[in-house]
Amino acid sequence: MNIHEHQAKNLLKKFGAPVPVGEPIFALDEIDEKVKKIKTSKIVLKAQIHAGGRGKAGGVKVVDSIEKLKEEAKVLLGKVLVTHQTGPQGREVKRLYIEEASEIEKEFYLSCLVDRASSKIAFISSAEGGMDIEEVASKTPEKIITTRVSLDGLIKEDIEKVLSPYHLPDEAKEQAHKLVQSLYDALINTDANLIEINPLILTKNNQVLCLDAKMNFDDNALYRHPDVVELRDLNEEDPMEIEASKFDLAYIKLDGAIGCMVNGAGLAMATMDIIKLYGSEPANFLDVGGGASKEKVSAAFKIILSDKNVKGILINIFGGIMRCDVIAEGVIEAAKATNLSVPLVVRLAGTKFEEGKKLLETSGLKIIPANNLAEAAKKIVEAIK
User: 223 an active-site residue?
Assistant: First the structure.
């Protein structure tokens, strides 16, 4: 689950991270009251969407009067912002953020995240802040320092390594040490997957500030954090993904023409890859999980068909905990309820697959059977041509 910049800053502030004074704006008539908290002569206005690259897309403005602030806010609120992370369709700006302007001396990059490979927390730091960190990693990887730290807690040596690329003046070092500790505490205590500060800045009076902030959280741990769940903004999520979450389905919409229903993330990735191998593109990633009910499978089927780009469906199930006859019942029920009009290829293997195949064969529906994944992919690609 992602949250907005202003929410991330507010959360990090509770753990002791230094952030500029700022206020969210949900409607233009809030500006007069909320701008009173901004004490600098210049004001930074930021569009709030779940995507990076807002500045390059015109979503960040610096103004020097309330009149100019209102003028720019009127343009931004409701605007569709297109960045490298939104895709060509962009995202509508439904909230803004105003904050005090900072006098920047230097910009840095700092993040911490769960490193599954080492079962540790990884801090990533670089003196190249305020820009695309992936580009820095690609062109000048030596400028990025990765520090893996134990879940038992930070030690002084860890923090000094994290901060080593910055070459901070003595006046800023104590505050920077506290910042690293606060990010660690926030990640652990909120079950966040990632905290990213880009840029982290050193001001002209040697203060360290989080000028931007991004956080996302482990969905599986949200039951422990009702306060974090309250920060969820459904306006920033795909309606089909929201619907899928109601049934505990792992669904991500893609741009292709072949809808996929698979059990298991690895099998889902393999299915998507083989569809591409045979010359088409997947319309989604959809993992129904290991113990799906007939109702869950039926819901998954309907979600796939709600995408108007879907011209065919490939169902690829390997039955372990999941029984193939249950999958078949759900598919039949959903196909009849939706008056299925696109080609459907089904490959079943594993527990109760013979019973599942028989149910599909006697359903009266035009279902194309397949004995293996390669055959299934080939058949569905041919069927939609």
Answer: no
